[in-house]
């Protein structure tokens, strides 16, 4: 893979950094990848080669490239980390992905000044909102670890799959809701648009290896103002497993100028639900839905929505949120799903004791039946 033609441009609405990506070992078409933001936040965006190197690494491994060649100088801290990230990826993929050579010169200095602050990747879901709330409770506003910016990415779940459309209206609606939360937390929401995922939109690759690197890639693009970016954990320490975003791999995407911190894996999913439920503005404006339907922030029908509704119901908070229209969950809402895929059983097992205490044996019986049914089918 050759990464070249790094460029910074602007049009009537956005300022953009871009690079040309060419594959050498496969006939996969080349692509110009970009990261852009509205002019209002353009002063935060830098033409940082680290952003493109990190964003391209996993697709290069996926297409069995032998090298990544760049003419730009790269931080040796990042190069060390990428070698470790590739070794982890090789082991987790059982050898399907092998490390490649990164051909580039090495920086002998820092790229940015120390007068910067902390940010986070903001999705509007439970992981990111719990991370923001805990940061506000634990860090004085003057501390360099206190979050000042939240990066909200178009091209991740919204607009990430070309065949599903770019859905800019869904993104804009989410921006409106999430801004209510970030304003209350004195955090600036920074809209970011990228097509890095479109380098290879293989779903298994995305979920198991790629999306954490994209989060880190976007973070590096804002290293002009951020020295550290928090990524909310997907799983807690009791249930860690190979995943695209993981406390073992995410930090290896760091450079001397940009520390990537995977955080809050000491908190269970229910812990996070309780943290968000105790913060009114977040409880009323969270976004967990991946269906991205036209007229609702959360569809209330997909498995992730129903699972979140069950969790809120279990802690007595479903009827207190405006983020869902529904105030209750019935067995038929969950019965149609396979709740054992993608490492989901612990989420459902955790709510069973709370549902029993509430006398919701209809949901308890349905969940246990689904878990046992799928277990028996796999024997």
From TrEMBL:
Lineage of the species this protein comes from: Bacteria, Pseudomonadati, Thermodesulfobacteriota, Desulfobacteria, Desulfobacterales
Tree of life domain: Bacteria
Protein name as annotated: 7-cyano-7-deazaguanine synthase (Queuosine biosynthesis)
């Amino acid at each position: 893979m050759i990464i070249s033609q790094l460029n910074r441009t602007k049009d009537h609405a956005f300022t953009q950094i871009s690079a040309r990506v060419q594959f050498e070992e496969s006939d996969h078409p080349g692509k110009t990848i970009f990261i852009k933001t509205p002019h209002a936040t353009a002063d935060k965006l830098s033409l940082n080669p680290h952003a493109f190197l990190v964003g391209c690494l996993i697709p290069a491994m996926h297409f069995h490239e032998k090298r990544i060649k760049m003419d730009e100088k790269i931080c040796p801290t990042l190069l060390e980390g990428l070698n470790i990230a590739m070794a982890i990826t090789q082991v987790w993929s059982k050898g399907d992905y092998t490390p490649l050579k990164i051909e580039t010169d090495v920086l002998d200095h820092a790229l940015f000044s120390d007068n910067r602050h902390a940010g986070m990747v903001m999705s509007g879901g439970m992981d990111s909102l719990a991370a923001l709330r805990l940061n506000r409770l634990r860090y004085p506003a003057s501390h360099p670890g206190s979050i000042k910016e939240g990066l909200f990415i178009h091209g991740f779940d919204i607009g990430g799959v070309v065949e599903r459309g770019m859905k800019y209206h869904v993104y804009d609606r989410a921006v409106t809701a999430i801004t209510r939360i970030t304003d209350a937390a004195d955090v600036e929401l920074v809209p970011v648009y990228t097509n890095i995922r479109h380098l290879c939109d293989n779903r298994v690759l995305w979920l198991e290896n790629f999306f954490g690197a994209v989060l880190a890639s976007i973070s590096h693009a804002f290293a002009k103002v951020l020295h550290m970016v928090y990524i909310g954990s997907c799983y807690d320490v009791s249930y860690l497993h190979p995943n695209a975003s993981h406390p073992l791999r995410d930090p290896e995407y760091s450079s001397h100028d940009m520390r990537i911190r995977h955080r809050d894996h000491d908190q269970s999913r229910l812990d996070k639900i309780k943290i968000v439920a105790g913060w009114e503005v977040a409880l009323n404006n969270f976004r967990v839905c991946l269906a991205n339907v036209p007229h609702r922030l959360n569809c209330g029908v997909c498995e992730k929505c129903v699972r979140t509704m069950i969790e809120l119901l279990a802690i007595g908070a479903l009827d207190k949120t405006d983020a869902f229209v529904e105030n209750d969950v019935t067995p038929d809402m969950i019965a149609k799903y396979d709740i054992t895929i993608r490492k989901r059983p612990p989420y459902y097992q955790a709510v069973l004791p709370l549902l029993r205490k509430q006398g919701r044996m209809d949901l308890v019986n349905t969940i246990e039946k689904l878990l046992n049914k799928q277990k028996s089918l796999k024997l």
